[in-house]
Amino acid sequence: MYQSAYACFDMAQSLVDFKIRMVLGVNQNIKKCLLNIIPQEYSWKIILLEGWEYIIGDLKKNVIIEQIKEDVLFLGVVHPAWAQEMFALTPVLKQKINDYLGKEHIKSIRIKLKQTNKQNKKQSTNLQKLDFVQPVLTINEIENLNRIKNTELREVMQCFYLKCKEKRSL
Q1: 121-170 pLDDT tens trace
Q2: Which residue from 77, 82, 111 is spatially nearest to 94, judged by alpha carbons?
Q3: Which of 10, 33, 51, 78 lies 20 to 30 angstroms, CA to CA, from 66?
Q4: pTM of the prediction?
């Protein structure tokens, strides 16, 4: 049993290694194209993007480069705690980036909270749940409606009452 688990793990690792080599090969081709297209004074941005995983280390899952605008680096983080942590690390990170680039290209780092797909999905699920919530009459409201003798009038009043509650909840 353990041998088959190890074999599956080895096969999965080989597949991951293959995909990484493929992506790196594609990335090298993209890098060459970009270096030919982008003016030389902005080539440091490609170097920064390429070395980002080395610069940021283990934080790469929680911090991504959103944008580089002139000498300002915009970072996206997945949680408010990471935003606070990155804010505290900003001077160290800025120094590390500029050391990596060999020149002070980044003068400021801005951090913003970015929504993950999981958060977006959770929000849309909550919105969908809200769409299906039907207003409900209280016992007191039902008793008051039952006092109306005319059935047709009672039904119209019930519909009107429910629509009013629905509008109020929006």
Answers
A1: 555 555 444 444 567 778 888 888 888 888 888 888 888 888 887 777 65
A2: 111
A3: 33
A4: 0.52
